[in-house]
């Protein structure tokens, strides 16, 4: 029970953070794809950098044991293909799965339509699973991290991601200043 | 009321993600809860089919059944958190967001279609912007970063054709 209570509380904070950022609004979100409002990029990468640095330092200080944190396994081919398909759907919908729930909860009918669509898409994939199973399980699946890929220490990769994100934030500011106010 | 500064909101979101790592040993997610719901629905209609199914079976076989899933409770929280935050900020509004030249009907059709396409992509990739991009991104998973880059690529490839939806 305790774990489900924690799940709910974390969810509440997750939903509130997305809503505060404005990501419950499809209109604001799609600004990312027309380069008029880069909130999606800024929020996402600030969150990734924050959690990445927190994880790194808490592990280094011995507060958490990294081996106890579940790292999503890499199945490269289905993740690359699934990512492309997902991105196309994201641009069509104007919301992603998490933000569609926030949009629904803040009264947006388009959010509810995305929620219904997500359910349908997952259900269809499940029903058609025998057709895609081989591809779904291609590459076997293993925990594979950027430090392993690049043959660099964890701390160096963390530093590199921070640098790339900072460069991205500077660029995002420049793009927004040049962008027309409507698209 | 104005939205929060994106960097402050991003730090808050990152701390929520970090809290999930520390207190639950796992990150955030969204599409997984849809997969669990779909599995639970299939199991309710055809229990034997669901149990033996290579996709639905994985979700239905969780201890306590599909309705006691961690992500399901987390996503229920997302609805509550989004609702309370929108109410407090005076942003709760019954509307369908779209451009001035777009009908409610066509926006809803696009949203439903986009959601379905995302559902297929997320099912294939084993996650979405939350479970892959945010969670796997922060944990430096190669597949998650691949997913994130390709998701942006897919979105930027399709978005120009949809510009008039938002005009």
Which features does this protein show?
heterodimer; A: mainly alpha; 9 helices; B: 167 residues; mainly alpha; 8 helices; globular
Q: Can you walk me through this structure?
A:
The complex is a heterodimer of chains A (183) and B (167). With 183 residues, chain A is mainly α. Helices cover 71% and strands 0% of the residues of chain A. Chain A has helices spanning 2-21, 26-29, 39-60, 76-93, 97-105, 109-127, 129-136, 146-150, 154-178. Chain A is globular and about 45 Å long. In chain A, 51% of the residues are buried. The mean pLDDT of chain A is 96. By secondary structure, chain B is mainly α. Chain B folds into 2 domains: 1-93, no CATH class; 99-167, no CATH class. In chain B, helix 2 (31-45) packs across helix 5 (70-88) and helix 7 packs across helix 8 (142-158). Chain B is globular, with a radius of gyration of 18 Å. The two termini of chain B are 23 Å apart.
Please describe the biggest sheet of chain B, giving its number of strands, its sense, and whether it closes into a barrel: none
- Largest contact between protein chains? A-B, 124 and 122 residues
Q: How many DSSP-defined strands of chain A?
A: 0
Total number of distinct structural domains of chain B: 2
> Strand-and-helix sequence of chain A, N→C?
HHHHHHHHH
First and last CA, distance of chain B: 23 Å
> Which shape of chain B, going by the Cα principal axes?
globular
**Segments of chain A where pLDDT lies below 50 for 5+ residues?**
none
Mean of the pLDDT scores of chain B? 96
How much beta of chain B, percentage-wise? under 5%
Give a short overview:
The complex is a heterodimer of chains A (183) and B (167). By secondary structure, chain A is an all-alpha fold.
SSE arrangement:
The complex is a heterodimer of chains A (183) and B (167).
Chain A: H1 2-21, H2 26-29, H3 39-60, H4 76-93, H5 97-105, H6 109-127, H7 129-136, H8 146-150, H9 154-178
Chain B: H1 6-24, H2 31-45, H3 47-52, H4 56-60, H5 70-88, H6 104-125, H7 129-138, H8 142-158
Helix pairs in contact in B: 2-5, 7-8
């Amino acid at each position: 029970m305790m774990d489900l209570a924690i799940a709910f509380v974390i969810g509440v904070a997750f939903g509130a953070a997305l809503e505060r950022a404005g990501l419950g609004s499809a209109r604001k979100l799609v600004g990312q794809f027309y380069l008029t409002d880069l909130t999606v990029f800024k929020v996402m990468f600030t969150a990734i950098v924050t959690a990445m640095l927190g994880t790194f330092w808490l592990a280094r200080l011995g507060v958490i044991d990294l081996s106890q944190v579940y790292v999503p396994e890499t199945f490269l081919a289905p993740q690359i293909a699934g990512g492309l398909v997902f991105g196309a759907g994201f641009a069509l919908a104007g919301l992603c799965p998490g933000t569609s729930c926030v949009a629904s909860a803040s009264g947006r009918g388009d959010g509810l339509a995305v929620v219904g669509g997500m359910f349908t898409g997952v259900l269809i994939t499940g029903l058609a699973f025998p057709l895609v199973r081989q591809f779904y399980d291609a590459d076997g699946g293993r925990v594979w991290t950027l430090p392993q890929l690049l043959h660099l220490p964890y701390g160096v990769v963390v530093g590199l991601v921070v640098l790339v994100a900072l460069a991205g934030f500077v660029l995002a500011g420049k793009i927004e200043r040049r962008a027309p106010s409507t698209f | 009321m104005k939205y929060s500064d994106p960097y402050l909101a991003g730090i808050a979101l990152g701390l929520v993600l970090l809290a999930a790592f520390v207190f639950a040993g796992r990150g955030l997610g969204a599409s997984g809860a849809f997969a669990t719901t779909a599995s639970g629905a299939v199991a309710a209609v055809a229990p034997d089919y669901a149990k033996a199914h290579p996709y639905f079976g994985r979700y239905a076989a969780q201890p306590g059944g599909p309705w006691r899933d961690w992500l399901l409770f987390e996503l229920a929280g997302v609805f509550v958190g989004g609702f309370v935050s929108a109410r407090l900020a005076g942003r709760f509004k019954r509307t369908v967001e779209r451009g001035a030249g777009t009908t409610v009907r066509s926006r809803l059709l696009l949203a439903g279609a986009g959601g379905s396409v995302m559902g297929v992509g997320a099912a294939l990739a084993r996650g979405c912007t939350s479970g892959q991009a945010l969670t796997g991104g922060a944990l430096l998973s190669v597949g998650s970063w691949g997913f994130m880059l390709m998701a942006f690529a897919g979105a930027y490839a399709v978005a120009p054709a949809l510009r008039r939806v938002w005009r």
